Amino acid sequence: MKNTLLILCSILFIGLTSCKNESAKTSDVIAYYCPMECEGDKTYDEPGSCPVCNMDLVLVDTNVDMASDEISETSIFNLTSTWTNQNGEDLQLEDLKGDVLVMVMVYTSCKAACPRLVADMRNIEERLPKDAKNNLKMVFVSIDPNTDTPERLKAFAEENVMDKEPWLFLRSSVDNTREFAAVLAVNYMKISPLDFSHSNIISVFNKQGELVYQQEGLGVNSDATVQHIKDAMAI
Q: Keywords, A to Z (predicted)?
């Protein structure tokens, strides 16, 4: 009887120790991060706001496998719209999975802000390591699909010497374009038969199609944009 009681106590002690260790292990990995990744992969021990952008910190989900092929709820790959590139080939955004995407919404007949955005995109691309561009797409999305046919996009790409990798030009229907612009928080409005008023935003998406950074303005310092692209390509 004494031996049986001793065995039961030993089992109970081992069970409690195991539970305690598992609890400690779980509490050790609790961390918070800025959804805009203002300070790269830096995490915080307590909830609060990012000291850079003031956005609420987000709890790190330790159950998520970063190498998983699953698409998160915030990924643009959830959009099922069909797009056509400058070569007349149809694709869906999910076909770009695995590439870091640097995207801007423009239109080819623009004579004001768009040429500056094109220059900004070129500057960003030139600052990235050449050996890291195999998993990169620099994407122009037209906000004027009625004018920007695949033929027009191809001509524009050739005129600007952007007719090779990693450059990609896309157009879709008016409704699909509006939906995509809403996801990027890009506003645009037709102000004349040939002109649009629009936001000047360059967006960076990681390989899972999740927005990690946005650069707003024309001719602004792109150091943070370049760093976020490098970080996304390194994962």
A: Copper, Disulfide bond, Metal-binding
